[in-house]
Amino acid sequence: AYCAEAHCPVDGQVVTEFTTSESRPTDDKSAAGGSKKPATAAGGAAGAHDDQPDISSGGKFDKVEKEFKALLANAAELKKAWRSVDYNGNNKVSLAEIDKWIEEKYPVLDHKPALMRAYKKTTLRDGDGDAWVEKNEFPALLPNLLYFNKAWDAFDAVDTGDDRRVDVNEFKAGLSKIGLNLTAAEAEAEFAKIDKNGGGQVLFDEFC
Question: For 166, which DSSP code?
Fold first, then answer.
């Protein structure tokens, strides 16, 4: 998908192993790696060409990201967190249980499209392919929740029609919101790359 392929900078920092959707961190060192390409301020300097997108969330996820990093660095605390989401104690959690946990404990992450993508990434790509997030898959769920919520935040800013679709005009008008500074022709070419099926509308799945 667009953001993952481009390794979009997040909150002024390049995507790290912690925030990228391809990560599976296991300890406190997992936030240290990733792309070294310097981030660019939204829109870049006047007239400057910038074709690297930037998911800028204004720091709204900083608190929860710090908490998730601390959980992943502390096995005992991670175990406590798992127990808080595994409501019935059967060592596997459903999408509904994760949704309830997010609503109650992390409302800043309560965006259903982002939750669904994080759940699918965790179960189908990081996990064993079944319909449950199991205890050993929980460390992958946390960074996935952050990544897809940051991607949703950027997508929602560009989607001025609030129909959960972005057309080429919205994309061109919202370039500065995702840190792109392109000519009209370049923007249309970039949009075509994201719009894999050529339908003229980019959905969140394609964007993130």
Answer: E
Residue 197 and residue 199: Cα distance in Å, rounded? 6
- Which pLDDT score is estimated for 6? 52
For residues 197 and 111, give the distance between their C-alpha atoms in angstroms, rounded to a whole number: 25
Q: With a cut of 70, say whether residue 51 has pLDDT above it.
A: no
Mean pLDDT over all residues of the chain?
80
User: Tokens at residue 140, please?
Assistant: 């992958």
Tokens standing for residue 79: 């175990």
H-type helices in 41-94, by residue range? 62-72, 75-85
pTM above 0.90, yes or no: no
Q: Which residue is associated with the tokens 């609503």?
A: 103
pLDDT in tens, 53-70: 555 566 889 999 999 999
Q: What phi and psi values does residue 28 have, to the nearest 5 degrees?
A: -70, -10
Q: What is the pLDDT of residues 57-114, one digit of tens each?
A: 668 899 999 999 999 999 999 999 999 999 889 999 999 999 999 999 999 999 999 9
Q: How far apart are alpha carbons 108 and 60 in whole angstroms?
A: 8
State the amino acid at position 51 in one-letter form. D
CA-to-CA distance for 188 and 199, rounded, in angstroms?
Answer: 13
Question: Which of 111, 119, 110 is CA-nearest to residue 142?
Answer: 119
Tell me, what amino acid is at 119? Y
